[in-house]
């Protein structure tokens, strides 16, 4: 697993991945040496590299950066890769992007403009990092939670579904990238189903609840 971005969501996914036997290669915009403490905390399953190296190494690459950083992504090593897009657009942080403000594009479709040869799957963008860590459950658990994913490649969605399952979550297929707005910031499935931020353990959310939340989204 390669990681471009190692903030709260990225490092949480990395932690869950390592706990279930995956190897992770972390990167950020400041250089691998700044990730020494994170790598030491995560243990021998983790290493640090440049963004290009993380992109080249990962069978699946997690892109977890501000939307304003999309132009700086290493497009060449991401070509042909399954890319998990965890990113949420926030104009107060990212500046105003006309196509996102007008909702003529989803943020994942905007990402594809910068990494056009990657197979992008939207996932993990709708859950608070502390809930993501605490709600993971093994397959078959009665209180297993579900996450929505969206993407245009059946192959990539199958790979992401397998990964998400391996780290403790079921998956609801939310359709193509054009429909990924249904899980973007402020929609019914974004954050709310898993409980308030003040409850750091969160609450389990079954498949039906995720499907219902996606269905009630309006643009």
Per-chain topology:
Layout: E1 2-4, H1 8-19, E2 24-27, H2 36-42, E3 46-48, H3 51-57, E4 60-63, H4 75-78, E5 82-85, H5 91-94, H6 98-101, H7 107-114, E6 119-122, H8 129-134, E7 146-151, H9 154-166, E8 170-173, H10 207-215
Parallel strand pairs: 1-2, 1-4, 2-3, 4-5, 5-6, 7-8
Antiparallel strand pairs: 6-7
- The count of β-strands is 8
Order of adjacent strands in the largest pleated sheet: 3-2-1-4-5-6-7-8
Helical percent range? 25-40%
Q: Count of DSSP helices?
A: 10
Alpha-carbon distance between the two ends: 33 Å
Low-confidence stretches: none
Global outline: globular
Q: Structural class of the secondary elements?
A: alpha/beta
Portion of residues in beta strands equals 5-15%
Computed Rg: 16 Å
**Element-by-element helix/strand order:** EHEHEHEHEHHHEHEHEH
Mean pLDDT: 97
Main β-sheet, in a few words? Answer: 8 strands, mixed
Notes on the structure:
The structure is a single chain. The protein is built from 10 helices and 8 strands. The protein is an alpha/beta fold and about 220 residues long. The mean pLDDT is about 95.
